[in-house]
User: What shape does this take?
Amino acid sequence: MTISAVPARAVLEEACSLAGFDPAGAEPVRIAENEIWRLPGKVIVRIARAGQLKAAIREVRVAHWLADNGVPAVRALPVEQPVEAAGRPVTFWVELPAHEIGTVRDVVTLLKQLHPLPVPHFPLDRLDPFIRVAERIEAATSLSEDDRGWLRRRHAELRDWWQKRPAGLPECVVHGDAWVGNVARTASGPLLMDFERVSVGPPEWDLVSTAVKMTTTGAVSEAEYAEFCEAYGTDVTEWEGYELLAGARELRMTTYAAQHAATRPEWRAEAQYRVDCLRGRAEPRPWHWKGIM
Assistant: This one.
């Protein structure tokens, strides 16, 4: 869902006033569900959805915790934050230096630093692989009611399976959305970004994000994945719970596309294709899903 930059700027100006920043010269970086602005002086402003104050507080705490533990990551500015403007939580970050999207090797390098850390003293939620999936299905109005009904049933099946999941590696702090898009490669090395889904749960959830890029979408080669497994020390596809976690990740990827296709017609074919893949109407895996947003 794209949001007009006009009300976004009003929120930005109010938030900057509350936090002591000058919004003059602000430039929009990305105006979508979460809005990103750049201020002069290498300051990034992130405006989250209404109702996400708890998540914003957690993101800032996680950023400080990662910094304290020496994990390369985007840094929250040392100001009192988040602030709320027009009911929306707003956070302030150090702008990254010149960078490009991370690699599979970068992802595993950062997970190897994150997963061994002791759980912090501030509260973290338990991992929920299905957060916002139900809402996305209801918002996916470009799909037929038959397809949406199937997605609801698949969601319920996977949720039930999640409650009975097999034992795996010891639980730890997990990133929650660990893929190359949430890693920035800079001249000094990779940096972890986006702490919206950081929680406590099975580390396999972070590993499955890369695994499905090989087994489901074919975006990661077998050689890249073998290197990933060697670096981490385990292959999540060999775990008996892999089908469950891969299914949850596929459902998230499909409902994400379907939600946005409701307001962006150019993504409707991709959303429908993903549903068709899950329902057995397309070729066998790996499929070739195209990125959106």
Remarks:
- Confidence is low (pLDDT under 50) at residues 1-6.
- Residues 14 and 85 are 6 Å apart (CA to CA).
- The domain at 104-278 is CATH 3.90.1200.10 (Aminoglycoside 3'-phosphotransferase; Chain: A, domain 2).
